Amino acid sequence: MSGDTATLHLDGIPPHMLSEVEKHLKPFRLSLEKLQEVSARLRKDMLRGLGKHAHHRAAVKMLPTFVRATPDGTEKGDFLALDLGGTNFRVLHVRVLEEEQRVLKMDSQICAIPQEIMLGTGEKLFDHIAACLAEFLDSQKLRGQTLPLGFTFSFPCEQKEIDKSILIRWTKGFNCSGVEGEDVVRLLKEAIHRRGDYHIGSVAMVNDTVGTMMSCGYRDQSCEIGMIIGTGTNACYMEEMKNVKRVEGEDGRMCINTEWGGFGDDGSLKDVLTEFDEEVDRTSINPGVHTFEKMISGMYLGEIVRLVLLKLTQEKLLFKGCPSEALLSPGSFETKFISEIEEPDTGLENAKKILTKLALDWDLVDARVARLVCDTVSSRSARLCAAALATIANRIRTNRGLDHLKTTVGVDGTVYRKHPNFSDELQAAVRLLAPKCDVTFLISEDGSGKGAAMVTAVAQRLALQSRLLEDSDGEDEEEEEEEKVIVLRTGQAGCRRLCVSGRNKDLSKSVEGKRDEGAGSGREPTNTPAQPTWNTPGAALTREQVSGDRKAGEPGTDEV
Ligand code: BGC
User: Fold this and answer.
1) Which atom of ligand 1 is the closest one to the Cα of 172?
2) Active site residues
């Protein structure tokens, strides 16, 4: 690929050996043309996911998040945040300081989720979460308080409202029974209720990509994409409301959780998959699901490398043809080994140590071949991610009819953060695949923790405003004299501006929303601090406005 920055360590491998090894590695090397094809396919799948009717059968789910507003700087208070998405679970106490516009992590605690809980019943999982939360509240002396809670739940969920989120399916090694198809907030509340020894306030559900975008959006106004490349992979971005066919309303933008990990689940990536990917999928706990994620994310990269090393051993190209017990055991080659082996200076030495740890009878050429395998697998991951990210950037640019787009991606995840050249390779490939987009990458500072608290803070602000507005709506006629509610048409289809004056002076700023149609409302920021450009005035974390959904297969146009 021209502009190639792939760090392939070919040195020191004899030519005849290299050509034999390359036969097995070739399917991992994706040309620029192939990546462009992948991007074009994802583009189509994204349209399907956004469609009013086609989304039922879309592999890329494109889930509306109902996040339409960012912090306006008036949020404040203490919040709890829960972060469930990998093998650990985190509880945080976060303080939002209005005056300084800062989000402080007061304290946090990590609780391991043992394998038997990851694969047990949903009730056990949520009891475990509720118990960790109780322990944390005690350690923080917060048990007597009823704090609002941001719940980063990093699995594909059909969000119905900000506090109602139905799990579509488990990913990343979780498979707790009785949770798919259920409202995760209800399950959490029930677990807390079963204990009966503490209370929580309102809950806001957040995907980790959204938390990441939100936390970076606070720092960089043009942050409108959130991306995770860690145990799993996914991205969200700000889509034009008029294209989100499943949600009523044409104005402004809404954050869409793409769930790009599911790309290829309908067979659209058959030509890109290698025999090793197929094996990883077959032996996973969720075969046929999250095809794209299984080629990219930390949960699977180590296993792909192990399978390639095993194949090369069976072909007598490595370790004198003798695999060790460890090499034969699934999961023995950890993804972090890839980063260690690819370290520019110490990589080869690390490779030797790791091969020794795996009880393999290696020589120097073996160690070099192992490093080449790691380069190849991680490089494909970076390029596939780049193809997907470029698809999003190109879409935002064309959505807005721009010749050139300048945008920022908030990013997080161990693969992106820890691998020595993953980010460079990804960025170089994005430049090639989205030449008209100038994409800046901003590492998120705890999007799953602080970002979730921020979403909750915004939700709480909007709910409070909405409540005050409703109170003022219900006043007696005499009082209405004093507290005038003026309803203005804004000229935006279906959108009203409600200005409240009189006694509720604190609500004298304007609010836009579709209150009577089940939507929440939001205050138009005045005197607003730095905000992302997608922070459409008055946009809110709304309740669902889903329009007459049809069942899969029913006719309807899904033009976006
Ligand atoms: C989940 C996403 C999540 C991603 C990164 C995927 O497996 O489906 O919801 O954002 O992992 O954590």
Assistant:
1) 7
2) 172, 208
User: From the alpha carbon of 157, which atom of ligand 1 is closest?
Assistant: 9
489 class by beta-carbon count within 10 Å (0-12 exposed, 13-18 middle, 19+ buried):
exposed
Q: What is the pTM of this model?
A: 0.82
- Three-state SS at 80: strand
How many alpha carbons lie under 13 Å from residue 96 in its C-beta half-sphere?
30
Name the residue at shortest CA distance from atom 6 of ligand 1.
232
Q: 232 CB under 6 A from ligand 1?
A: yes
Residue 494 CA to ligand 1 center (angstroms) comes to 34
**Cα angle, residue 359 at apex, residues 356 and 361 outer, rounded to 5°:** 80
320-367 pLDDT tens trace: 999 999 999 999 999 999 999 999 999 999 999 999 999 999 999 999
Report how far ligand 1's centroid is from the alpha carbon of 348 (Å).
32
CATH number of 15-63+223-445: 3.40.367.20
Ligand 1 proximity of 258 Cβ (cutoff 6 Å): no
Nearest CA residue ID for atom 2, ligand 1? 155
The domain spans of the chain are 15-63+223-445, 65-219+447-459
Domain 65-219+447-459 has CATH 3.40.190.80: no
65-219+447-459 and 15-63+223-445 share a CATH fold: no
pLDDT digits (tens, 9 = 90+) for 231-278: 999 999 999 999 998 888 888 899 999 999 999 999 999 999 999 999
- In the block, residue with structure tokens 């160690």: 367
Ligand 1 contacts CB of residue 159 (under 6 A): no
